Amino acid sequence: MPGFAHIVAAASIALIATASTAADQNEGSRLAKLLAGDPAAGFARALEPRAFDFPHDHGPHPEYRNEWWYFTGNLEDASGRRFGYELTFFRVALGTEPPRSDSAWRSNQVYMAHFAVTDASSERFYVAERFSRAALGLAGAARDPFAVWIDNWSIRERPPGSFAESSPERERWTLSAADDRIALKLDLAALKPPALNGSDGLSRKSADPGNASYYYSISRWQSSGMLSIGAETYAVTGHSWLDREWSTSALADEQVGWDWFALQLSDGTDIMFYNLRNTDGSQDAHSAGTWIGPDGTATSIRPGEIDIAATGTWESPSGGRYPSGWELRVPGRELAVTVAPVIDNQELRTLVRYWEGAVDVRGRLGDIAVTGRGYVELTGYADTPSSAE
Amino acid sequence: MPITLMADTTDIEIRLRKLSRAFSEGKHVHQVLHGIDADFARGETIAIRGRSGSGKSTLLNLIAGIDVPDAGSIEVSGIDITKLSERDRTLFRRKHVGFVYQAFNLVPTLTVADNIRLVLELNEVTRIDANARIRELLDAVELSDRADSFPDILSGGEQQRVAIARALCHGPAVLLADEPTGNLDDATADAVLRLLDQLVRAAGGTMLIATHSARVARFCDCSLTLAAGKLMAE
Amino acid sequence: MPVIYRASLSYLLRHPWQLTLAVVGICIGVAVIVAVDLANSSARKAFLLSMDAITGVATHQVIGGPAGLDETLYRELRVARGLTNIAPVVEGYGDAPSGPVRIFGVDVFAERAMERFADLDSVATDDDPTSLIGDLLTEPGAALVSEATAAALGLRRGDMIELVTAGRVHAARIIGIFESTGGAADDVLLTDVATAQVWLNQPGRLTRIDARLGDHPDAVARFQEILPAGTRLLSAAGRTRATTEMSTAFMTNLTAMSLLALLVGLFLIYNSVSFSVLQRRGLIGVLRALGITRRQAFTLVVVESAGIGLIASVIGVLVGIGLGERLLVLVSQSINDLYFRVNVTAVDVSGLSITKGMLAGIAASTLAAAVPAFEAAAYPPRLALLRSTVEHRARHLVPLIAGLGVLTLLVAAATLWSSARSLVAGLAAVFLVIFGFAMCIPLAVRGLAILFERPGRHLAGLPGAMAISGIATSLSRTGVAIVALAVAVSATIGVSVMVDSFRGSVSAWLERSLQADVYVGAQGGPLDPEVIADLAALPGVAHVSSSRRARFEYTGGQTDVLAIDMAPGSYAGTEIIDSLDVDVWRAFDAGDAVLVSEPYAYQHEVAPGDTITLPTTSGDRIFPIVAIYQSYDVSASAILMSRDTYDRYWDDTAIDSIGLYLDEGANADAIIAMATAIAANRQALRARSNSDIRVLSLEIFDRTFIITDVLYWLATGVALIGILSAMLALQLERARDLAVLRALGMTPAELGGMITLQTGAIGLFSGLAALPLGVAMAYILIDVINRRAFGWQIDMDVGAGVLVSAVLFAVLAAVVAGLYPAWRAANSRPALAMREE
Asked: Is C818 left (phi over 0), alpha (psi -120 to 50) or beta?
């Protein structure tokens, strides 16, 4: 899920604005102005493939401007009640040199987090967001043991123990977040090793060298825990997906947004693809994806190898028209599935407005019928001037 | 036994009975009026003569309801005003009595016309009627051209003519004049008296003139003298 | 307009000076009321507005001990407890080149829940929005100011200003300018928590944590439960209320003073109206003869006066708005000196203030007309009412009024006795005393006139005797003028005596309590401990004392604790007013005993032997009160505690100021120079000798009473106009008599001299009549008003100088006011005057 940097950057612009959406119309032009400059001076850039070192690389990389930990997942309780969730931590560096100060509040690292829950059976969607500086322990990220947090929202490495079914060398984390109406506490056990996206983890976003990120996914986590919505609490299980990315890059001028798919099929296959869209509506050549087999083997998917066609649209009550429902084919793998949102309205009306929601997958893989679940992210439909009409 | 000037008429306008009034100055009590009985018929013009301090003004004030007697009754147009409250006496005076003073007593801050209008207004005469009446009266006293003048630029005779117009404007049954020519020279005095007499007679009113002057008394139907608190025919 | 009203309007227009003086009298009264009300309400509103802006939607505030809160409490609440509707604040004051500024350190992220400085939005529209937030977070010294502040100080984005806090110089860079409404955020320097901590030298500490808990008591109770010992949860509204209430007594006093101006104005319009009625008694007699009822005559006079009141009030309101702006400077200065920080630049013209002024003006003039109107209605419909009849009646009334006055004085005394602590009742008693005394003055004047008739004859022959006796025989005229002047003069006596006594007490207190030779502090913060050590080691310094002022807030109020480390033998600097039968200083040094200031004892109704509960670091603790000490410390009530006791219960090592006791022969100025020099690179010190502090303190004291002076001078101005008006009226009234005197051969100079003698005597009588009233007022102001308002006990000190100068002033004022009437009378043509009647 590339180029999400702009959300983080935009967040820092709008941080001092109250959460009103009145300024949204300007967001695109403001962004363009912001991205046209060279705010990246002094930061490290993703130019070459690098050797990843896990679990070390789960921790922060403050020499890069932006970084995120992006969990999505599909859960259900014993009665089959269907839920989706998203818990995302963004880090943005406001400068390269850590400031020296007598005050423990001084920091150049800012964190933002989004927490969303989809309740499919009652067709409700809940969102909360947080901001904080990485100071005084209010927010931050750490390695060995791994942790990332804002306030009482966190993802942390668990001490060795309980998860019998996962391989001992795989990640065992806990995820915890609570807001006024929603709360989630999950035990997470990675079922696959990290899959490096792009070229050995270097994910190019445009022809411009350095306009790239380091990008890996752990595409399948056994997840179990408690989910609360209002006064109700559900014991839930399911699968989660982690995307990890850090960079000092941005969208190219002609790119307007992307459609990101993270699908977990019933046969154990996971598919990630992001479709970068240009302002003229065409697919950008730097769109890319990864096919992750049941054994964790990762193979790149090139734009020409996949065919995604939207089958419907959804009109946001706050303005903007999103695609909704897709026919997705990978002819080379004999995959043909439909992807359908579990509910239409999974739009996050946060500082930057975007759609990110749980989806159901149904179709055929070769000869066999497959089902699946996943998450789709749609950006650039509501906030940019090009989509305003 | 009341003094009756026209015994043959029952048309009595003013009836005084046992009227007494005294003033105290320190310890000394000065009995000004001492049991006066008198009847004055409608349409009569009477001169009340007497020396200064004989009680002429007091008698007029009592008839006007300005002052109240210590004893006795005053009946004017059939109403015993001694039985009225202060407020009712004022309203009675406003409607039925006209007053002309030696010192004219025009309101200095009002024009000639407004001085007359004041009384008309108190009697709730409409504005249109009042304007007509003022014009008529000023014509009668030959001051039409001074309607908008203030009193202080008028001569004494002119001021007294305004005062007469004011006193008669609402058609009072009784006109009381207290030394009306006291501040005027003889020629002017005669002119003013002629005018007063003419207007009062024309309106059919009863007029009492308090004066010390025989000259003034000549203009009246009859003349009475006030002395030692008693009223006597000459 | 009915003809009779036209007659009355025409009369007023023909006597323009009379009309003018009546208008001016009420006008000044109304203007002063409006001005004081506007100044008060503007100051209060500005304060509330700034509190609102700074409080935002926060409903509660968590505060700690004297050193603030440990910042880790915030992390605890946010991360471990998961609370979101809380925001940290580091707040304090610094000095910019333009003057004091409020440093307000916040966390921009937490601010999203607080909605204060909501117009910060507008900053984001600047051309480089990302750098703004980035700079605020990362750049030491980055700050924002409001548009109004920027305009007032000529600041633009990117400008640097030098800021002095806690004696240290910092550079602030203006990185943005935000919109604010109504001057709410004027003088605020908005910055990041980190910057504020550094500027205010409070690393690791927060001033408070603001919380948005809503109204639900459960939420408040739950929040309360998780707070550690040594912290308190206060309602934001209650905190604001408690602060504003500190100034209530001050503002009530100002309002009372403004009423005094109206009261004197009331005398003046009474004077004018009753004169106009008297002068028109002939006219009214004629009107009555023509058939005007008593009620109509009464209404005529009242309506006429109300009309004058209306016009005067309109002008008064306009003048008042202008005056209010000047007064506001004085009021806000005093509030800043005495109570809380308020920055207010413009008068907020409120409809309420204007309505108050209009109502006061019209009501006063209508009320003032009531008596003359009754008089007019009582005139029999005569052709001419003799002057002597009026005076005759007045003579009869004089003892009656005096009797009523005595009755009023008794009521005043009863009010004082029965209202133990009420300030408003005390002020009501002051007015009752004024009224009561005022009613006795005519009788006193008559006595004085009889007394002075013989001296008058000796001085100026028969005309002299006439001048003096004329005052008594024309009491219906002169009485009111004398009363007005006497009230004004007595007010100046009362206030002068009060201020002088107060000043004397304060001066003596300063003399006694400033025991050290040199006092050293740092502006806007505690002293650097190393600097203290270096200063103690200076040659010539024998001993060092230290003090720390800690403010404790609780629901509904606040208390200052003064933690003192006394130098040996300096106990004598503290005057014990009342104590338990123990060794006070032993208990103070060794035990937990505390001393409370006199205002504190009065306001909280505590005495030695009682206890006081204070929030220590480990929770509430009870301290015994062993004594009450004298203090005129302007920031009101305080508790005195030994430094040892303080250190036992509070985790706060800061020292605000130290006193240096010098060796015999050591030069204070030299020590100050040395002290400043050795601290130069660390802290800018404010070091002063005790004599300098005494002078400075008295300057602040005097500044506080400027506004009092201004108000009393305005009241005196009204009274002088009263004298002028009364004398003119009297001269006009007596034009015929004076013309006869001229006709009999008196020269204009002789006539003028006689009138001047008369006005001089009026002044003298007023001044003499003012003496007992003035002293009585001083007594009430000192023993009742000051005590009820501030809790201070002051030794009353009536200086003969004050009394003599008050009488001289009254004579001089009356003579000056009588000059024009005298000149006028002397130069009138006798023939003309005689013809007029």
From this structure: alpha
> What would the two tokens of residue A313 be?
């649209």
Q: Which residue has the tokens 């409809």?
A: C351
How many C-beta atoms surround the C-beta of residue B148 within 10 A?
9
| Among C355, C356, C351, C347, CA closest to C324 | C347
Contact B110 C6 (CB under 8 A): yes
Q: Chain B closest CA to C283's CA: distance in Å?
A: 7
- Specify the DSSP element, H or E, that contains A13: helix A5-14
Contact A109, A93 (CB under 8 A): yes
Q: Does B108 touch chain C (CB under 8 A)?
A: yes
SS3 label, residue A71: strand
Of B61, B93, B117, the CB nearest to C3: B117
pLDDT, one tens digit per residue, over C357-405 is 888 888 888 887 887 788 778 776 664 444 455 556 667 778 888 899 9
pLDDT at A385: 38
pLDDT at A23: 34
What is d(CA C441, CA C449) in angstroms, rounded to the nearest whole number?
12
Q: What is the pLDDT of residue A24?
A: 35
Tell me which amino acid residue C671 is: I
Distance CA C468, CA C759 (A): 9
Residue C246: how many other CB atoms lie within 10 Å: 17
Q: Do A110 and C137 touch (CB under 8 A)?
A: yes
Task: State how far the Cα of C520 lies from the Cα of B98, in Å rounded to an integer.
Answer: 92
Cα dihedral value C826, C831, C832, C836, nearest 10: 110
Is the pLDDT at C310 greater than 50, yes or no?
yes
What is the dihedral sign for C-alpha C54, C55, C56, C58?
positive
Q: What is the ipTM of this complex?
A: 0.86
Q: What percent of chain C has pLDDT over 90?
A: 9
pLDDT tens string C44-61: 777 777 777 777 778 888
* pLDDT at position A3: 37
Pairing label, strands B3-4, B28-41: parallel
Nearest to C120 by CA among C48, C192, C42, C61: C192
From A46's Cα to the closest Cα of chain C, the distance in A is 23
- Running DSSP on this structure, what letter comes out for residue A127? E
Per-residue confidence (pLDDT) for residue C246, from 0 to 100? 64
Please give the Cα distance from C323 to C329 (Å, whole number): 10
Name residue, tokens 């020519």. Answer: B181
The answer, for A363 touching chain C at a CB cutoff of 8 Å, is: no
Joined together, the tokens standing for residue B82 give 């001694």
- In one letter, which amino acid is C116? R
Omega within 30 of 0 (cis) for the link into A55: yes
Residues of B in contact with C276 (CB under 8 A): none
Whether chains A and C touch (3+ CB pairs under 8 A) is answered by: yes
CA atoms of C268 and C278, how far apart (whole Å)? 15
Tell me the whole-structure pTM to 2 decimals: 0.70
Beta bridge partners of C178: C146
Q: Which residues of chain A have pLDDT under 70?
A: 1-41, 160-168, 250-253, 383-389
Residue with tokens 């969730």: A85
* Neighbors of chain C with 3 or more C-beta pairs under 8 Å: A, B
Give me the pLDDT at residue A326, please: 95
Structure tokens at C140: 């030491």
> Which of A14, A94, A137 is facing C134, going by the closest CB pair?
A94
Helical H runs in C680-799?
Answer: 690-704, 706-733, 735-743, 748-780, 786-790
What is the identity of the amino acid at A167? S
- Based on its alpha-carbon atoms, the radius of gyration of chain A, rounded to whole angstroms, reads 20
3-state helix, strand, coil in chain B (%, to 5): 40, 30, 30
Q: List CB contacts of A202: < 8 A, sequence separation 6 or more.
A: A46, A48, A49, A50, A212, A213, A214, A215
